[in-house]
Specification:
- This protein has 357 residues and is of the alpha+beta class.
- The protein folds into three domains: 2-159, no CATH class; 169-313; 314-357, no CATH class.
- It is 41% helix and 24% strand.
- The chain has helices spanning 18-39, 52-60, 122-133, 191-212, 219-257, 267-277, 281-304, 348-355, and strands spanning 2-12, 78-80, 82-85, 96-99, 104-111, 114-119, 137-145, 149-159, 169-174, 181-182, 260-264, 309-312, 326-329, 333-336, 342-344.
- Helix 4 (191-212) runs antiparallel to helix 5 and helix 5 runs parallel beside helix 7.
- It is globular, with a radius of gyration of 24 Å.
- It holds the Pfam family Cas12f1-like_TNB.
- Keywords: Coiled coil, DNA-binding.
- Residues 292-348 form the Cas12f1-like TNB domain.
Length: 357
């Protein structure tokens, strides 16, 4: 079974020289636009753009899963082949060459006859070494720019042999992010999250008032906009960090126990739960966004390590004893009026998993 993991490298454009910055914006923006034509099946070999961009797109086209209508609006980005030097391996002139002896990355084809050298952080170099030590190989790289940053996404591929599960089962009840992720009744406080969201909402209201007055381009308006962007980055970084740490803990537990993983198929129920509790509308969207991100991260890493997993519907509002509807009391306590069963709402799906074969 082929499994994939991706390292995203992000660098501010201001850290490059003027020549490098102008070339990155011009070439990668042009490759983005041409990628849509290539995805539709047109053969375009534009003058002034390295022919290897089109060549590598055609080579990796089958890997991109551009199907149906989506391919007409696809953001393909520039595609590069990847080489790695762990010891004394030869540089074969790949579009992206990772030199782990110097903790550096060389990005080619953007400027003629020379590479743009990017220093790797310790965590990025460690991530690459870890994937290589697990038997992964760099498959391809994609690069693109926005207004302020260069992004390079390096995808590693591994042929993962599925492990034979033991008698253990690791059951994961993924609630809405408002109540955390439960696998052994572990919760995360969201006070910091709500504080950040409330702060950015207030700033956006102030900025909106300035915009209506035509004052959003003043020094105060620009400063306010920068603060909004910085607070949003902190908000998403908080959720992203929590998701990554939770996935790491769960995958390590599954590997240690050689357990099959049962994941509660919960997206729709969690959406209803968020609507019932009536949080701020925007915050509900943030919760749902990272709920989906967590499930994607989890299944991606389970495939990478060959851990078997299965989605099962594990209800939290149905009694696991008699099958009657449960009533929720304050404090997320569920009670059955028929048989008297009483438990924390987060424990009910786990009991259903124990009951099922």
């Amino acid at each position: 079974m082929l499994a994939h993991r991706t390292l995203l490298i992000k660098r501010p454009l201001r850290t490059f020289t003027n020549e490098e910055r102008e070339a990155l914006v011009k070439v990668l923006t042009r490759a983005d636009a041409l990628g849509n034509l290539w995805a539709r099946g047109f053969e375009v070999w534009p003058i002034g753009l390295d022919s290897r961009f089109a060549d590598k797109f055609n080579y990796f086209k089958s890997e991109l899963r551009l199907v149906n209508v989506k391919r007409w609006l696809a953001r393909v980005h520039a595609i590069f082949n990847v080489g790695v030097r762990l010891d004394n391996e030869r540089d074969m002139g790949q579009g992206v060459f990772i030199d782990l002896t110097r903790n550096a990355l060389r990005l080619r084809w953007v400027i003629k006859r020379r590479a743009i050298v990017i220093s790797l952080t310790e965590s990025e170099a460690k991530y690459i070494r870890d994937r290589l030590s697990e038997g992964g190989k760099p498959k391809l790289a994609r690069a693109w720019v926005d207004d302020e940053h260069l992004f390079i996404a390096i995808t590693f591929e591994r042929d993962a042999e599925q492990i034979t599960p033991s008698n253990y089962r690791l059951v994961i009840d993924v609630n809405s992010w408002k109540n955390g992720i439960v696998y052994a009744i572990v919760k995360d406080s969201t006070r910091n999250l709500e504080r950040l969201y409330n702060h950015v909402t207030k700033l956006e209201r102030k900025y909106g008032a300035l915009r209506r007055l035509g004052l959003h381009k003043t020094p105060y308006g620009r400063r306010l906009w920068r603060e909004i962007k910085a607070t949003k980055r902190r908000l998403y970084a908080y959720l992203r960090d929590y998701a990554q740490k939770a996935v790491s803990i769960l995958v390590k537990q599954a590997l240690n126990l050689r357990a099959k993983v049962i994941i509660d198929d919960i997206i729709e129920e969690s959406r209803r739960e968020l609507m019932e509790e009536k949080p701020l509308n925007g915050l509900a969207k943030v919760y749902m966004l990272y709920l989906r991100r967590f499930v994607k991260l989890l299944t991606n890493q389970l495939r990478w390590y060959g851990i078997p997993y299965e989605f099962k519907r594990l209800p939290s509002t149905t009694c696991p004893i008699c099958g009657s509807e449960l009533t929720q009391l304050p404090g997320r306590i569920m009670i059955c009026s028929k048989c008297g069963f009483k438990a924390d709402r987060d424990l009910v799906p786990i009991l259903w998993a124990i009951k099922q074969p």
